Predict the 3D structure of the following.
Amino acid sequence: MTLTSEALLAGASATHLHDLPADLIKGEDGEQQVELRPLSVKDLQLIARAAKEDENLSAALMIQQALVAPALSLDEVRQLPAGLARHLVEEVNRISGIDLPRDALEEIVQAPLAKACFVLAREFGWTPEEVSGLTIGQILLYLEMGRREAAEA
């Protein structure tokens, strides 16, 4: 069964409640949660352009873009304790389908990702806007589906 573009894009709008470890939240008792959303291709492209070579800015922008509740400004994200920020980036990577070292993020966002978006748009008849709304995990899944289908033909 072939999925519709609406079904594919639905994953990009999903949000996830995430329990923060108590040792990362000083002065707070009990479990504390944040609400995160996966990053889309468009998010990652904007982050890569804005941050250029600054890995710390990339991480802060990833957190700021993915954090639904509580929403924080970029300045507030920069004030987070380093351990909490690292934890949040790892969780954002996980829910976004990015299982790569941080230094590989920019490499993924550039030419290979653009090519993947082109292939998906051509194969599935999607617009660039539809493809840019997909998460990295969704892109990888559908590229693999296309590769398997081509191998079977």
About this structure: The chain has nine helices and three strands. Residues 136-152 form the longest helix (17 residues). The mean pLDDT is 77.
